[in-house]
Please model this.
Amino acid sequence: MTFRTLPFLRRTACVGAALALTVAAPSAFAADLVVSAAASLTNAFKTLAEQYEHAHPDTKVVLNFGASDVLMQQIVKGAPADVFASADQTAMDKAEAEKVVQSASRKDFAANQVVLIVPQDSKLGIGSLKDLTRADVKRVAYGNPSSVPVGRYTKGALEAEGLWDAVAAKGVPAQNVRQSLDYVARGEVDAGFVFATDAAIMPEKVKVAVRVPNRTPVTYPIAVTTQTKQAQQATSFVQYVLSAEGQAVLAKFGFQKP
Amino acid sequence: MDAVWVPLLLSLKVAGWATLLNAILGVAAAYAISRWRSSARDVVDAILTLPLVLPPTVLGYYLLVLVGRRGVFGAWLDRIGIELVFTWQGAVLASTVVAFPLVLKSARAAFEGVDHQLENAARVLGVSETGIFFRVTLPMALRGISAGVVLAFARALGEFGATLMVAGNLPGRTQTLSVAIYEAVQAGDDNTANLLVLVTSVTCIVLLVVAGRLVPPAARGVGEVYERRAFRREAVGK
Model:
């Protein structure tokens, strides 16, 4: 090695090391526990994961939020999730039918309520589901019923009142419940359907207009996936969610007991 | 088949409008920049090129903040009856912004490649500045501009991120091909997704072939054709 090639080699080594770091950084390590959870659980599960990590320093909880059906689809297509927490039974039923979750581990861990929200400064005076059919209500957001649980609950409730077709005509289907919340908070829609726990996150921007009566119980199931390589940690996390400590966190964010 | 036709036609409509707008705005901006002698030119060019490098989500957010109901221009647009968020016009806006730099870049390079001696020759012959633009500069730059316009159409057809943020995902109204595919995959509807990606791929191949034939022959050739035409006109005394 001559003197002159040295700086070149050193620079190459530096660039190589930096590249290696960037490539390696985002990938999951063996001790990572991947939890796929419904979008409505975002805030509660962030706190839960933090507390769980505190109690189990050797485990790193990696959270993946989205519409329950999307998460279910990801797992069916081979996403390396260890725990699946869904916002309704339908998505979990599908996961069970596809044999991607362990049926024995399935437990309901929370309950919620669907609400109709309007922007805090709304002047439309929406006070009932029927008001949504009025001409001055132009856009209504709800989760896309084909992939978002809150959309399925919404569709069920509106169908029961014979209002679904009229509302769907001015509907803005959202990718997940938080998008529906965001549309209302920005005032881009006149009203939207979310869970009571979502509405509680932005009290300064949205207000609850109607508490939609639960036709089917709004319960959240959780289960360990079949392809997990860390069944023990996954089970331990599920137990933590069901424990008094975990339930206290969920209660703090407005979730009810199942 | 509605599951395919409706988003396909909507995609073509949105991309068509976006391309038309870009062909006018992009060419005008490119011509202005290519003739402008100022130190601010590079800054303006950089700003106009931003949509090429910014993530579509950033553009979508900017557009929401600007034209949303509570946006900077939203209230004003609302008053004159223009609604962009959750409408197909909003999808056109998003696609136009995203594809704009493709026309700008190609058209600018094409304008700067035009031989000034030919323009000066026309000037000497007493052709007006407007006449020079339409009869000398534009025909000479047409090949480069066409390439940019074709690219812009392709980009507009494939637009996803900014469109989803501004126009949403309203079946039959703002659900373009790319958004419909996203929705089908999210819902686990693989049959629809397969059909849609197949249709999109075939559409793009057809477009590329058609575009390849539409783009006029090399710039030098156009110049020659033009010169020959002009010569003939001179010859018949017109």
In short: The longest strand of chain A covers residues 32-38.
